[in-house]
Amino acid sequence: MSKNNLKEIRESLMISKAELSRDANISPLTITRIERGEPCRVETKRKIVLALGMKISDKDKVFCDKGLVSVKDGKDRRSGIDRREFSYAIYSPEHRSGRDRRKDFLNN
């Protein structure tokens, strides 16, 4: 388990778990797990830092972990990059609906 300051920062900003999870587009259960010190993906950390109104460079103020967990460790099966978001970022940098992406895919 890694130590983080998420709960202290969230409470100092008077933000509820529900509000933070809504702003970060993640579940409240994920917020609870992270506040308990359970590991999470880098993308989830990025969403939380931005939802708190902080810069990405301020991530060390929230998450104090120095080393990342390797996917090969088996300790956290979800610690790698989210492949769906990664592939969309490469092939579709603009935000389009799934229907529009499917139309373009089927037309090519």
What do you see in this structure?
With 108 residues, this protein is an all-alpha fold. It folds into 2 domains: 1-65, lambda repressor-like DNA-binding domains (434 Repressor (Amino-terminal Domain)); 78-108, no CATH class. It is built from 7 helices and no strands. Helix 2 (17-24) crosses helix 4. The chain is elongated, with a radius of gyration of 16 Å. Mean pLDDT is 77; it is low at 68-73 and 85-92.
Which stretches are poorly predicted, pLDDT < 50 over at least 5 residues?
Answer: 68-73, 85-92
What is the assigned CATH homologous superfamily of the largest domain?
lambda repressor-like DNA-binding domains
Structural class: mainly alpha
Percent range for β-strand residues: under 5%
Mean pLDDT across the residues is: 77
Helix content: 40-55%
Coarse morphology: elongated
Return the string of H and E elements.
HHHHHHH
- Supply the CATH architecture of the largest domain: Orthogonal Bundle
Rounded radius of gyration (Å): 16 Å
Largest sheet: none
How are the elements arranged and paired?
Layout: H1 6-12, H2 17-24, H3 28-35, H4 42-51, H5 59-62, H6 83-91, H7 98-107
List keywords for this structure.
108 residues, 0% strand, 2 domains, mainly alpha, 434 Repressor (Amino-terminal Domain), 7 helices
What's the quick description here?
With 108 residues, the chain is mainly α. It is built from 7 helices and no strands.
